[in-house]
Design a protein that fits this description.
The chain has 689 residues and is mainly alpha-helical. It has 37 helices and no strands. Helix 18 (346-355) packs parallel to helix 20 (376-388) and helix 22 packs antiparallel against helix 23. The relative contact order is 0.07.
Length: 689
């Protein structure tokens, strides 16, 4: 099959045309008086004063959803439906030959089997992938048109997307790399460097998966053929393309192949000569060929000559990457400091100096750069590169080293450097220290972007230091930072997780008073928190506040309400209200219906939900998975297994949560095959993610 496909596609490819103020000193330890709110209990109530303030904030503000929103959402779904339909169709076509072979249909003659494979490959290459776009509703708002355009660009142009990468891998698996390129060419998609790089990565991944080098040679050759195609089509082969390939050859120590391919790459792009020297030195270090290493070093002893400088710099970086400190220092002393300070790899050089604790060398380079009047932001960033890479260094010591050089060279505060320090503190679980850094920066720079505080918000949530949310919000308020909708959302979410509903309402009121954010999502967060605490009165109070503020509920609101209904009458009531408001049903709304009916014991109604013709094909597998999980969790394991079989027969996959529910409730005795099948679903889901 492989040979015939490759022969066919080689013919097709050959016939195709080529196409300011001084920085304040940062604190290096926790403030003793760090502000913390007292712990709150689940029974914390929202005071009437807070609700009155919220009501006053919304008196002059009427937030309503545009009447065209349901239509816009519907059109949005149609655009994504087309892409989902095409993916499912391609997956079924690509899996066709294997499924046939595995099903035991081995009686067909070899000639007929090969002809069938050719027909399948030709069908793939000749088919239309996308249907024409559906005409959009004329009343759709401009921002929705822009959103759809962004989605289209993401689907068709963003080659780093998971969907494209998975599809590229499948095509390369089934058709070969050259056929995959022709395949994507039939989409009307131009093959550029990103597409070639994606396929080269596929080849290298396949080579790494091989058990021996002899098996990997086929994939190495395919990668080489891709480089030839890049060259033939007039593209420049840059390090983004050849770097991973040469690193693989270094890892498996293929000296002869490395020499052959590096010669080809140097010929294809003479400018890469000095950079390829980096990979050559890595290979010799890996092979422990000291004689050759010293010979190369002697060849560039006069490294200040233009022809030798770039090669010497590459050797130095290779020594550093291989933890050869003495050799790294040797070249650091040989190289011209003026040239080195302007190197494109200067950030990596400072990181290596930090790793080897070469503070004197770093200080000399910084002096050279400041004497040349380099931008303060660049120098500040380099001081952080050094400090953050010193082995086993504490976050407080990183800040001390950073402060020392900031003062010595009188550097102005750099938002970029402070941003990295804040992220470093958060990754080191030093949230209080990160707040101190942010405080210092806000004092010296009144126009600090709110995004700078995102790492602190994330760290509060991930490390469960929710009490720090109050200090963070106080900082935002104190320096009058302009909050965006996402920031309000995150801060309210933190308060709700603390069960501090009073604080959540305070932030919600601030959002209302700002007048620059849509608050329906913020209300939903508070309502969901009440439902998690089984506080239905609190959730109903949120609905009342939404009505008072003129904020119309969206599908997420109704999903929460439906999920927590205690009777089928209430489910019907909220479902009717949703439809009367003209709100488009979403995946989560269908799931909420399934969970509500299952919890109330009406399994027939739960099964009826997945039969709704209005469910987007894109979400059908997810909705069915929700039904499987709901049935299994409510004692209907056999029914859940039947629907699982239907999902598999239609080429779909079971969501991990549903698979776990089935595993937990399936009897082990006599069902080992079933359990193994479900574990395979979990393994596959993990691989896809």
């Amino acid at each position: 099959m492989w040979k015939r496909l490759l022969e066919t596609t080689k013919k097709v490819v050959s016939a195709a045309p080529k196409l300011a103020p001084a920085a304040p000193k940062l604190a290096t330890r926790k403030r003793p008086s760090c502000t913390r709110r007292p712990d709150v209990s689940p029974a914390t109530k929202v005071t009437p004063e807070a609700l009155l303030r919220l009501e006053q904030a919304t008196v002059s503000k009427k937030t309503t959803l545009p009447s065209a929103l349901p239509h816009a959402l519907a059109n949005d779904g149609e655009d994504e439906d087309n892409s989902r339909d095409f993916t499912m169709e391609i997956l079924s076509i690509l899996n066709g030959p294997e499924d046939t072979e595995e099903s035991g249909d081995t009686e067909a003659a070899p000639e007929e089997s090969e002809d069938a494979e050719d027909a399948i490959s030709n069908k793939i290459l000749e088919m239309e992938w996308f249907a024409g776009s559906q005409p959009s509703n004329t009343s759709t708002q401009y921002r929705k048109e822009v959103t759809r355009e962004k989605k289209k660009r993401y689907i068709f142009k963003n080659t780093e997307s998971r969907r494209f990468t998975r599809l590229m891998r499948m095509c390369a698996d089934k058709l070969g790399t050259e056929s995959a390129l022709e395949f994507f060419g039939r989409l009307g998609r131009e093959t550029g460097i990103k597409e070639f790089n994606a396929l080269i990565k596929v080849c290298l991944d396949m080579a790494r998966d091989c058990e021996d080098i002899d098996s990997a040679v086929e994939h190495i050759f395919r990668a080489y053929r891709l480089f030839e195609m890049i060259k033939d089509r007039g593209f420049q082969i840059e390090e983004d393309s050849y770097g991973p390939f040469l690193l693989y050859l270094v890892d498996v120590e293929l000296l002869e192949e490395f020499e052959m391919f590096s010669a080809f790459l140097k010929d294809a792009n003479p400018r890469s000569y000095s950079r390829i020297a980096y990979y050559e030195m890595l290979l010799l270090i890996r092979a422990q060929d000291e004689d050759s290493i010293q010979e190369l070093c002697r060849s560039v002893e006069d490294c200040n000559e233009e022809a030798h400088y770039g090669i010497a710099e590459s050797y130095m970086l290779a020594f550093a990457e291989s933890n050869r400190r003495v050799d790294f220092v040797r070249f650091l002393e040989l190289l011209d400091q003026r040239k080195l300070s302007g190197s494109k790899y200067i950030s990596s050089i400072f990181k290596y100096m930090g790793r080897f604790e070469l503070e004197n060398y770093a200080d000399k380079l910084l002096q050279e750069m400041t004497s040349k009047e380099c931008a303060d932001g660049k120098v500040s960033s380099l001081t952080f590169d050094y400090a953050a890479n010193v082995p086993n260094i504490a976050a407080e010591d990183v800040i001390s080293t950073f402060n020392k050089w900031q003062e010595k060279f009188e550097l102005a505060p750099s938002v970029g450097a402070y941003d990295r320090i804040i992220s470093f503190c958060c990754s080191s679980s030093k949230i209080s220290l990160a707040l101190d850094v942010a405080e210092c920066l806000c004092k010296s720079n009144p126009s600090v972007p709110i995004e700078l505080l995102n790492p602190i918000i994330q760290a509060c949530e991930e490390s469960y230091e929710l009490h720090m949310a109050q200090s963070l919000y106080d900082l935002m308020s104190r320096h009058k930072l302009k909050l965006k909708n996402e920031t309000f959302r995150s801060m309210i979410s933190l308060r709700v997780k603390m069960k501090d509903f009073q604080g959540a309402y305070d932030i919600l009121t601030d959002a209302e008073e700002s007048g620059e954010t849509s608050t329906v999502t913020l209300y939903n967060i508070i309502m969901a928190g009440y439902f998690r605490e089984k506080n239905h009165n609190g959730a109903q109070r949120v609905i009342a506040q939404m009505q008072s503020a003129g904020v119309k509920p969206d599908c997420e609101t109704f999903s929460y309400l439906i999920s927590n209904c205690d009777s089928e009458e209430k489910v019907s009531k909220y479902l009717d209200e949703l439809r009367q408001d003209g709100i488009q049903m979403t995946k989560h709304a269908y799931m909420a219906l399934i969970n509500a009916y299952s919890r109330l014991g009406n399994f027939d109604m739960a099964k009826q939900v997945v039969l709704d013709n209005e469910i987007s094909p894109k979400y059908l597998s997810d909705v069915k998975s929700a039904l499987v999980g709901a049935l299994a969790s409510n004692g209907k394991v056999s029914d859940g297994l039947k629907i699982f079989d239907e999902i598999k027969q239609s080429g779909g996959c079971l969501e991990p949560k549903a698979a776990v529910a089935l595993i937990e409730h399936t009897q082990t005795e006599g069902e080992l095959d079933r359990l193994y099948q479900l574990l395979e679903e979990l393994r596959r889901a993990k691989h896809v993610v």
